[in-house]
Amino acid sequence: MDDLLLTASEGAVRTLILNRPSRLNPLSIEMMAALNAAFQDIEQDDSVRAVLLTGAGPGFSAGADLGMQVSGPLDLGNIIDAYYNPLVRRMRALPKPIVCAVNGVAAGAGMNLALAADIVVAGRDASFAVAFIRIGLSPDAGGTYFLPRLAGDARARALAMLGETISAETAEAYGLIWKIFDAEMLMTEALTIATNLAAKPAQAIAAMKAAFNASASNTLDQQLDLERDIQRRLGKTADFFEGVAAFMEKRPAVFGGKPG
Q1: Residue 2 to residue 30: CA distance in whole angstroms
Q2: Which of 180, 198, 216 is the endpoint of a domain?
């Protein structure tokens, strides 16, 4: 299982690389188990302040592993409950920023895995496809949650129901990704973004993730109260004092707070 997911650390950035390039990194049960374990380790490692997720070879991920033999009814819900949903929940709840660098194809659950990250960048040659309709399924791995919130309801329905492949440029125009880079510069630029995030005030990043997550179901009044409570807590941190001091002294801030 270990070679299905490569891990590396550079400073405070932990890089996770889906590593089954010959099949465009399908999300097998073993791959999902490895991802869940890797993110669980990241949760507990205070030396990691940002995550970079990408795929080895010519594609990010073609989606679920369809190499299994299907000869009759299959309870896919059990697999989703055991592997997919825990991973998506873990990524969204992680109090550390996740950057996803999409190289080549991102399809089906592979596309939705990318959208579960905080910041998604793509190579100019990348492509995206919801794809589930092609095999008689509906989107999982958070697709029906992320797509309408990022691209809008009309585009989400068309992308899912038609199953068409869209380019990186179209994905950017739809608001599905943050930026496009030339393919040969993608990993360099993605690592730069992750390194930049790792140097930001960790508690503020964690609070932002929690606030954005809550905004999906909160009323405006609830969200305003949450913002107040967050600022009350952050206003007492060493990172806030450092940020204000650095601003007044016209120097770069050096943040040292732990995620939390």
Answers
A1: 9
A2: 198
